[in-house]
Amino acid sequence: MVEDFGGTTEMHGSGHWFLEGDPVPTEAGCAAFVLMTELTAPGDLDGTRVPSSYFWITDGDGGPDDEVVGFLNLRHVLNDFLLEEGGHIGYSIRPAARRRGHASAALALAVAAAARLGIDRVLVTCEDDNDASRRTIEANGGVLEDVRNGKRRYWIATA
């Protein structure tokens, strides 16, 4: 999957930047990546991270033959950076699996998960020129607040 992305630049929502180095497509690299996603308790955080839930986006119904096609990170609270640019939810679908509804379905599930956490509305952002993400967010009820630093900022009610 990392290779399909062409590296880590477009792996939004993956949290890979918290690893020591980029994720590598090996068993050890995968294990390090999974461990990084599990470190969300306050004692594990370094001031730049917030408690969050990571999800692997798959192309099926959760069965053993499902293929991982992307990432989603649901942040339980916003720090200053997330309020400006990152938002509550970050996600990315690998290029070979795009335009199949994975992002829209994953975002809808994340909004429902946010509601279960007691979050009344979530902030979701995308690059100003990313029409696919804009359409995905708007299809999930996103209401544009503004554009800051090249990021479109949308709020979605969770109720």
TrEMBL record:
Matches recorded under PROSITE patterns: GNAT
Xref: InterPro entries: Acyl_CoA_acyltransferase (IPR016181), GNAT_dom (IPR000182)
Source taxon at top rank: Bacteria
Residue ranges annotated for the N-acetyltransferase domain, each copy included: 65-159
Protein name, entry field: GNAT family N-acetyltransferase
Protein species of origin: Nocardioides aromaticivorans
